[in-house]
Each structure stands twice: as C-alpha cells, then as structure tokens.
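INFO  loader      accepted 1 record
INFO  loader      residues=113
INFO  predictor   begin
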Amino acid sequence: DLPSAVARALSELEGMYAFAVVTNTGAGQQIVAARQGPPLVIGLAQGEQFLASDPSALLVHTKDVIFLENGDLAVLTPERVTVQDRHGRPVERPVQHLTWDPIQAEKGGYKHF
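INFO  predictor   done
INFO  writer      dumping tokens
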C-alpha cells in the first residue's frame, strides 16, 4: 500500500524534506505526507482534508489544523487523518483551532501590506 511504500522510502532519505504523494486509485483518494525540517500542516474540514506548508493558506477552508512534527508521516483521506512516527507507531497530534483572521494572517500582523 502507498503509506508503507512511502515509509520504506523515508528510511532511505537524508536531509530535510516536506512532501506529499497523492493517489486517486486503488484504495481511493489518499494523500501521504511526510516532514523532516520544513513545516507541514493539515487542515481539517467536514468530508475533506487539506495540506499546506503554512497555516495561512488553509484559513479560507478551515481553522482546525494539525501541525506535523519532524519524522511524522500522515495519511489523509476525505474521511480521516492518521499520523505515525518514523518508526511506524501511531501518534496523536493535537487539533488546534486557529483564531487568526485570513486577511491579518497574510499581512503578518501589520495593519497594511
């Protein structure tokens, strides 16, 4: 399956990365994402999930997010999200509710661009 293949590939990688592999065949719609270094955040919505490197990109879709940690591998389907560590053990990452305003988030807290 795709998550297992990505996990095996991760054992061969060195350095920093944040990437996603997308499939729409076999087991259905699925995104497998991994992080080591650069940020990766999952947006949670009803019946759909999102993935971005910055939470401000998700604010127009959802304010409920999960910040992945170094070594995490996440599997996103329209129905759910699962996260495991680099050893394949399931881990729980807290869902955080962002209170940011989308316009303010893009301006970095400044009144004007």
